[in-house]
Structure formats: C-alpha cells, structure tokens
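Reopening this one. Same input as before:
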Amino acid sequence: MPNEALVRSQARQALTRGHIPRRDPDRTWGGPGADIPCTICGVRITVSQTEYELQYRHDGANPGLDRFHLHLRCFAAWEFERTKFEAAE
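Same output, byte for byte:
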C-alpha cells in the first residue's frame, strides 16, 4: 500500500476529478474484497483485504445505483479529504 500522503493525494484527485462523490453515500457496506479495482488507488482489492462499497442512488431519467469500491485505507483518506474539503467551503 502507498504511504499516507500519496493515498490522501489520490483521494483529493478522485474528488476533484469527480470520480467519486463528496456527499455521504446512501449505503455503505464492508467486507472481504471482490477483486475489483479501488476507485481511489486503482489497485485490486483482494478477498484477503477489507473492502468498503459505497452506494449512491440516482433517480430521474437514469434511475439506478452507482457503486464505488475502496480499500479500508483509501476509504479513510477519502473520508478525511471530503470532510476537509467541506469544512473549507
């Protein structure tokens, strides 16, 4: 896993680029990884690692569910950076 400064930088970039929402998810799940790339760092989350799945509902013309998969450490960096960003506004 990359160092803390790098993970936080990747989380800031994902937020700035709109790759992951800033708002609270509608639902959060945690459990074993599903061998899917992490939204923050791009590295696959193996079954031996803890994964957080963030779910966001959307309605209107395109109803459905957006899902984002994050390592535990990447989730913590995302949470820190998104709340830091909100506090600065």
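So the earlier flakiness isn't reproducible anymore. For the record, The mean pLDDT is 90.
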